[in-house]
Amino acid sequence: MGVCKYCGTSAGMFRDEHPACAQKAREENASTLVSITEVMKHAVLDRKISSEIEKLDRAASTEAGMTSPTLTALMSELQSKLNSLIKKAGEDKRAIFDAILAGWSEAARRRAITEPPLDLAQREGIVRIIFALDLPDSFSGIALTTGGVNINGPYCRPIPTNAMGVLSAISVSEGAMAVDFSNLIWMVRNNKYSDDPGIIGTTTFILKDKDEHAIWNARLELMQEVTTSEYVGVYGGPSVRIASGLWWRLGGARGHKEVHLSIQPMDQGDFTITTHAVYFGGKRCNFRIPFSTIVKINSYSDSVGICKDGGKEYIFLTLANGLAPYVYNLLEEITHRHGQREVAVYPIQKFKLEI
To answer: Any idea what the CATH number is for the domain that residue 272 is in?
Structure first.
C-alpha cells in the first residue's frame, strides 16, 4: 500500500498521493507564488529601497566602499519574507524564479510609465534591487537559457550561473524595457547622453554630424505600402480561323482596372535613432531621415511609422512584443525637442508712426 506524501495516510495500491491532497497542495503553492510576486512588487514600488540604492550609486564615484545601514535593514527584512515564502513554495525553482521576476518587472514597468523620466541613478535604483536582493542558495544550480528580444535586438545565450541568469532574465523583461526607455527620454530632455553600450547599444552607422549622438539601436524590419493593379473582366473576343495556323481575333474588352494596397516587407537591417536623424541599413535599403523632414509619426500595435515630407511612410516592424509604444514615445520626444531647437526667434521690427 502506498502512503500519501501530503497527509501521511494510506493512498491505495501503487499511489503516493490522494487527488484531493494533491489539488490542495497545488492551490496552496499557487497562492504562495502569488505572495512572492506581491512581495517583489512592494519592494520595487517602495521608494525607500530604490532611493537608498540611488544614493549609493551617486556616491560610488567619490566614496569607495560606501555602505547604507538603512538599505541593509530594508533588504534583510525583504530577504526574510522571501526566504519564508520560498521554503513554503516547494521545489519548483523555476516557478519561484518566475514569480520573483514577474513581480519585479510589473512594478518596474508601473514606475516607468507613471513617474517622470528616470535619470541614470534612478534607473540603477530600480534595476539593482535584484543585485541587492542576493537570492538565497535555493537557486544554486539553476542553468537558464534566456532567449527573446531585448531593446538591442534578438537575444539568446546559455547562462551558466544563477546570478547571470537573474540579470539576463531581467534584461529581456518588459519592466527593464520600460525603465530603459524612460531613462533615454530623460537623456533627450536634459541633453545628456550616455556612451555606455549597455544602455544605448552599439551603432553600425557613421554619424553625419559632429555633435550627433546615438540614442537607441536595434535590428528591425522595414515595411512599406505597395500599390498593385490588375484588369478585371478582360475578354479577348472571338477568333476566326482564316487558314492553317492563322486566326483573326475580333472585338475584345479590356475590362476595368482595380487597385490594391498592401503592406509588404522591404528589408531587414540595423536601425538607429540619433539626436538628429533616423538611420536604417539593410541589404537593399540604406537611408537617413533627418528629423527636420519628418511630418508625422504613427504608432501601431507592433510597429512605428515615419512619414517623410513628400515621400511614402516608412514602417519599422519591431521584433520584440510590446516594444513599439516605447519607440514611438522616444521618437515623439526627440522630434519635439528637435523642433524646439530649430525654431529661430527673430526680433520684432518697430516702426515709428508719424502723424
So the answer is: 2.30.29.30
Contacts of 2 (CB under 8 A, 6+ apart): 10, 11, 12, 13, 14, 15, 16
226 in the same domain as 176: no
Residue 215 grid cell? 540614442
Beta carbons of 122 and 188 less than 8 angstroms apart: no
- Residue-by-residue DSSP string for 66-115: ---HHHHHHHHHHHHHHHHHHHHH-S-HHHHHHHHHHHHHHHHHHHHHHS
Range of the domain at 206: 202-232+260-342
Are the CB atoms for 301 and 156 separated by under 8 Å? no
Is 209 or 146 the better-scoring residue by pLDDT? 209
Provide the whole-model pTM.
0.72
Q: For residue 146, what is its C-alpha cell?
A: 534566456
Backbone angles phi, psi at 35, to 5 degrees: -65, -40
Number of domains in the chain: 2
Give tens-digit pLDDT for 127-175: 888 767 765 444 544 433 334 444 444 433 333 444 445 666 677 788 8
CA 163 – CA 310 distance, rounded (Å): 51
112 and 223 together in one domain: no
Task: Classify 337 as helix, strand or coil.
Answer: helix
